[in-house]
Amino acid sequence: MSIAFLLTTLAVVVIPGSGVLYTLAAGLSHGRRAGVLAALACTLGVVPHLVATITGLAALLRTSPVAYEAVKYLGVGYLLYLAWATLRGEDALTVPGEAAPRPASRVITSAVLVNLLNPKLTVFFVAFLPQFVPAGDGGSPGALLRLGAVFMAVTFVVFAAYGIGAAAVRDRVRARPGTMTGIRRVCAACFVALGARLAVA
After folding, report:
1. Residues of 141-153 as b/e, b for ≥16 C-beta within 10 angstroms?
2. pTM of this prediction?
3. Are the C-beta atoms of residues 199 and 76 closer than 8 Å to each other?
4. b vs e for 37-62, b when ≥16 Cβ sit within 10 Å of the residue's Cβ?
């Protein structure tokens, strides 16, 4: 495992995207447990992309405009749904008073979909992982699995840190309803921006 791979992985994971944004929202809205669950679920959302890379499905997705566009616009649609739900206070960014915690199944499902419906992640795996496979291993599934496992581990640790950090300031945000409204609008705008960027990719 090269230092270059670890540093590149860390740089890719730390840069905020839809997964980071969703994890922040979950931690801020529903506390540490939801933030960690969202981080775990976003990490699990990487698995289908890794499997696609190993089995060659990613190459098909990259070379088939119809398949790529279909998955891309599903991802765009889901990001726009998250923006709409965030503004309405029906999804991640709702800070309840004494309401019951958000069901774990809903947190996990939403977070998995955030990463699952992102064809750019699959294409990224196709271009990214093979560069760091040792020359002697070629394109062996074992080598790709090891690199993918490290990528997922780094993803979980970084995302969990984001979620726990957001949960740490949750009480302060809850004491200022106006602040929460502003954060909700900013997050909704970010979801829209991410969707627009994906749409024109």
Report:
1. eebbebbbeebbe
2. 0.71
3. yes
4. bbbbbbbbbbebbbbbbbeebbeebb
- The pair of three-digit structure tokens given for residue 3, joined into one six-digit string: 């230092």
| CA 68, 74, 78, 80 torsion-angle sign | positive
Size (the chain), residues? 201
95 near 182, Cβ under 8 Å? Answer: no
Q: Which residues contact 82 (CB under 8 A, 6 or more apart)?
A: 18, 22, 91, 92, 110, 114, 191
Domain boundaries, the chain: 16-199
> Looking at this protein, which amino acid is placed at residue 79?
L
Contacts of 192-200 with C-beta under 8 Å, sequence gap 24+, read: 192/79, 192/80, 192/83, 194/17, 194/18, 194/21, 194/79, 195/75, 195/76, 195/77, 195/79, 195/80, 195/83, 196/76, 198/72, 198/75, 198/76, 198/79, 198/118, 198/120, 199/72, 199/73, 199/76
Assigned token pair, 50: 């890794």
List, for residues 38-90, the tens digit of each pLDDT value: 899 889 888 888 887 777 766 666 677 777 777 778 777 877 877 787 677 65
3-state secondary structure 120-158: HHHHHHHHHHHHHCCHHHCCCHHHHHHHHHHHHHHHHHH
User: Could you tell me the CA-to-CA distances from 148 to 36, 55, 137 in Å, in that order?
Assistant: 20, 13, 15
Q: Which residues contact 67 (CB under 8 A, 6 or more apart)?
A: 60, 61
